[in-house]
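Troubleshooting log. The previous structure file for this entry was overwritten by mistake, so regenerating from the original sequence record. Sequence copied from the archived sheet and checked twice against the printout by T.R.
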Amino acid sequence: MLAWLDEAGVAFACQACDTPRMVTKKISEVVFHKPVRPGQIIKIYGGVKVIGNRSIIIELEARRHSVYNGCQKTVLTTDMTFVRIDGDGEAIPISQRVKDKHTTAT
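Regenerated output below.
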């Protein structure tokens, strides 16, 4: 489940920051609200909390989806921090255009 969160989180962070290069810096406390069993459908949702100079903090929520009634129940929540990097793996700034886009959207 943590690997799924990391993969979904970095994809969301890359999309939000308009860059293909982000790395995970921190996963905050992960709170499991419900169990997940093999074969269950899990949907992961994200939202931008803060965009800094070189990093973004996103909130993630994983939900267990029932194919029988369409109901979704939250199974876990966490905040994750990702850093934008260049081809050498060094932290580089997130563009002002991206920051402006997210501050006007919230």
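The longest helix spans residues 2-17. Archived copy saved in two places this time.
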